[in-house]
């Protein structure tokens, strides 16, 4: 194997295994920032040894062993500086017997913590509410996605030094707040899990429809979010909303190949070639949705917001064409979503479905009622949806004005081009590609 081949192998192994290595080390040192440094030391060691010795049969285990050895070395030094060496004894120290589990470990062991996995602890730590939304996203991609600072900065169009400082501050905040490396207690779990799901969905949304820049989509971010969602579904198997989010992402991702033309220009949902939709992702999404529904039914609970959004996406996935879509059924699902997660964005999505099911006049009445909502004042899809409805009613001059306003609000170059092209034609079809995302607001 040539040196470039080894380098590619190391990159691939690190992307897959880094989260497990950081999580395993964090359980020993109880410091996420330090754990990442020690894991990177192991990566450097791999870069030094593997070109000469070859890639080991189990590269993930090699990295984990190397990182844990460095963690034990660090703990020995810490014990020495604390003048504990004599008390602990050289033999016990070498074995790591001086590492006393904290109360979280003791409680987890006593209760048989069913999701007390190192990776799950790392996810909850990286997505802790003490951090800002931007910091949670950056730290999650760094620690769990295996992305470099440069890759994350490029994905979010942020200067690399800015992104690096964001990550450094996030680690410092976790340390200063003494955030424990643990799965939250049962009473805090729903709120903390909601924070985790919000982060994963925000990453997916930025990949699915980029907020700014020259590209309509950022597929790598979608893939990172899908990988995190699949990881969560394995670690929290009995949570309906975890599977609901995974279903939502799988179903939306299935349309990726059809969402742009050969020149990278956006293609709206109603105009997409559905033969290009990924049937494997659709099957995965429908299976995850079925699992979410079964878990909700077993708990005698209604579907949560993510599962409801996945159910809406499933209606599109099952339809052979836009005309065959069960639009009245989608309206009913949006009614349920509006109760589970009241939001003006949900109401805007519902208006799109109402327009398809019952005509533009009924939908325009809903949209007009949203005109003065502060949360939608800078939201380009409000005038875009309104323009589509006006055009269908033959009010083309008004539609053109709305599309120009939407283009002024758009920060993504491809999105702006689409809206301006619609303005020039002022024809029906200016609705959002698949509807604006009704999930949690984008983190910025």
CATH class category label of the domain at 326-425: Mainly Alpha
**How many runs of DSSP E, i.e. beta strands?**
0
Instruction: Kindly state the percentage of residues in helix.
Output: 55-70%
CATH topology of the domain at 326-425: Serine Threonine Protein Phosphatase 5, Tetratricopeptide repeat
Sheet having the most strands: none
The number of helical segments is 21
The name of the CATH architecture of the domain at 326-425 is Alpha Horseshoe
Helix-strand string: HHHHHHHHHHHHHHHHHHHHH
Classified in CATH, the superfamily of the domain at 326-425 is: Tetratricopeptide repeat domain
Structural class: mainly alpha
Radius of gyration: 25 Å
Arithmetic mean pLDDT: 85
Assess the beta-strand content as a share of residues.
under 5%
State the separation between the terminal residues, measured CA to CA.
Answer: 43 Å
* Overall 3D shape: elongated
Low-confidence stretches: 90-116, 427-444
What would you say this structure looks like, in words?
The chain has 444 residues and is mainly α. Among the domains are: 1-82, Orthogonal Bundle (Rna Polymerase Sigma Factor, Chain: A); 326-425, Tetratricopeptide repeat domain (Serine Threonine Protein Phosphatase 5, Tetratricopeptide repeat), CATH 1.25.40.10. It contains 21 helices and no strands. The longest helix is centred in the N-terminal third of the chain and has 27 residues, at 3-29. It starts with a helix and ends in a 19-residue tail after the last helix. Mean pLDDT is 85; it is low at 90-116 and 427-444.
Summed up:
By secondary structure, the chain is an all-alpha fold. The protein has helices at residues 3-29, 32-53, 59-81, 85-88, 90-95, 103-111, 118-126, 133-143, 149-155, 160-176, 189-208, 219-235, 240-253, 279-298, 305-318, 327-340, 344-358, 360-368, 381-392, 396-409, 413-425.
């Amino acid at each position: 194997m040539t040196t470039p081949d080894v380098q590619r192998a190391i990159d691939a192994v690190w992307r897959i295994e880094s989260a497990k290595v950081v999580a395993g080390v964090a359980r020993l040192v109880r410091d996420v920032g330090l754990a990442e440094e020690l894991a990177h030391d192991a990566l450097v060691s791999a870069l030094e040894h593997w070109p000469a010795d070859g890639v080991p049969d189990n590269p993930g285990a090699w990295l984990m062993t190397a990182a844990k050895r460095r963690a034990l070395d660090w703990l020995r030094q810490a014990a020495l500086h604390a003048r504990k060496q004599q008390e602990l004894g050289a033999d016990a120290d070498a074995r790591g017997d001086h590492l006393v589990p904290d109360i979280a470990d003791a409680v987890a062991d006593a209760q048989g913590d069913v999701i007390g996995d190192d990776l799950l602890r790392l996810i909850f730590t990286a997505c802790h509410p003490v951090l800002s939304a931007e910091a949670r996203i950056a730290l999650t991609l760094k620690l769990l996605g295996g992305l470099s600072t440069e890759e994350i900065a490029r994905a979010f169009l942020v200067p690399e030094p800015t992104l690096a400082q964001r990550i450094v501050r996030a680690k410092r905040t976790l340390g200063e707040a003494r955030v424990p490396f643990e799965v939250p207690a049962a009473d805090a779990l729903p709120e903390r899990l909601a924070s985790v799901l919000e982060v994963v969905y925000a990453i997916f949304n930025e990949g699915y429809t980029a907020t700014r820049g020259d590209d309509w989509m950022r597929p790598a971010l979608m893939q990172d979010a899908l990988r995190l969602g699949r990881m969560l579904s394995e670690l929290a198997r009995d949570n309906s909303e975890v599977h609901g989010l995974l279903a939502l992402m799988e179903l939306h991702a299935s349309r990726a190949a059809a969402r742009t033309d050969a020149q990278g220009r956006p293609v709206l949902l109603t105009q997409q070639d559905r033969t290009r939709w990924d049937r494997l992702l659709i099957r995965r999404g429908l299976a995850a949705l079925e699992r979410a529904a079964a878990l909700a039914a077993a708990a005698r609970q209604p579907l949560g917001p993510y599962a409801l959004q996945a159910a809406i996406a499933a209606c599109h996935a099952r339809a052979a064409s836009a005309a065959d879509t069960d639009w009245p059924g989608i309206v009913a699902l949006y009614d349920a979503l509006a109760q589970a997660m009241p939001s003006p964005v949900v109401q805007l999505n519902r208006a799109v479905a109402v327009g398809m099911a019952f005509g533009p006049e009924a939908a325009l009445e809903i949209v007009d009622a949203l005109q003065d909502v502060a949360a939608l004042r800078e939201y380009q899809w409000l005038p875009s949806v309104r323009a589509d409805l006006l055009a269908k009613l033959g009010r083309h001059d008004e539609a053109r004005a709305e599309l120009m306003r939407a283009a002024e609000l758009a920060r993504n170059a491809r999105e702006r081009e689409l809206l301006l092209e619609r303005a020039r034609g002022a024809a029906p079809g200016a609705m959002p590609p698949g509807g604006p995302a009704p999930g949690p607001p984008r983190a910025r």
